[in-house]
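Re: your question from the hallway

Yes, I did run it. Sequences:
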Amino acid sequence: MTKGATQGAARRRGRRPGGTDTRAALIDAARAVFIEQGYDGATVRAIAAKAGVDAAMVNHWFGSKEGLFAEAVLKLPFSPHELAERLLDGDVDNLGQRIVRTFLTTWDTTGGGVFTALMRSITSHELAAHVLRDFLIKHVAGQVLKSVGIDHHEFRATLVASQLVGMGMVRYVAQFEPLASTDVETMVAAVAPTIQRYLTGPIS
Amino acid sequence: MTKGATQGAARRRGRRPGGTDTRAALIDAARAVFIEQGYDGATVRAIAAKAGVDAAMVNHWFGSKEGLFAEAVLKLPFSPHELAERLLDGDVDNLGQRIVRTFLTTWDTTGGGVFTALMRSITSHELAAHVLRDFLIKHVAGQVLKSVGIDHHEFRATLVASQLVGMGMVRYVAQFEPLASTDVETMVAAVAPTIQRYLTGPIS
DNA sequence: GTCTATACAACGATAGAC
DNA sequence: GTCTATCGTTGTATAGAC
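Structure:
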């Protein structure tokens, strides 16, 4: 659209003059459209149109729609190493609070639409669930729980994930009130004890 | 819908002999296919084939695919009153346990695919989220929490929902191990205290 | 001159509508 | 059944960078 899809006359064939980065434009457009429409709802043509290029460019640069999806949506907007470090910076007894607070502020500021897109991808595209699982378990949960150093750390990790995912589903996707509009600190007070118990408390 | 007036004598041609109810057969088939494939994945043709009728019948009876979806999926064969009664049959101190156990045994026996379908509908179909929310909050959560009789019952209800939805997402949709394979009683031991605190404990 | 990023046309499949 | 629209994808000619 604003990207200069058709600048007055018909788009010219051939290589564009220097500086344009079709690949990056496609990733930006794909992120937006996948977020809005979901994997199946997003069409290659719509993404290409938003990027101001031809649909064939998707196959040229990413091989397929699925390749573009992997590049655009599954490359999350945060560094797992940074995240783990930030969570571990402090007392283990407050880890639950930091996790809930970080989770909510992160997704609140990104608008929640990204989280919805992620859930939509997971529910409709088996590949996404697998990739996300490996990513989370290996790079975030693994690092954090190794530092906590306690038994059943894999089970505890999935328990933590369950409460966080559910909180995101209710807050961002389904938007059940009043939870969807509850301020972050109230949420921390309510949910952090749950996370803390899953991390370091008795679970059986 | 756009039916009713046209189901008289004008539709004689091709009508099946005695007793068969194409409309009901379509709803049954649609329920199964929508559950299995999600809204986008379910095709009108597949539904019609399962019902043993022509695809044109969908348009005839329900106007469109979306009309059929509304009739089939959003009217679940589900008794909220029964559910609420079953949950309330016992001590309030064990309510968390009963909720987790009922949730898991219900969805475990239906295979988990149904839960996935529900989440898929919610994430991809805004209408479904609204209808489901009203349904749950009004008929199930409302009744249960009124009996518990405590402050902030709406907030508590959404907190409970968040843990249950998240547990289902991890167990049935994303299938994160080991939670996905953990037996029901171990899950109850781990998660019930969370639910119980959301219901009757301090949350702020 | 060579390479390649690009646009365009068209294909086969498949959907919902009529 | 047929029609029409649209999907993801592929083949190919070409404009421009190097």
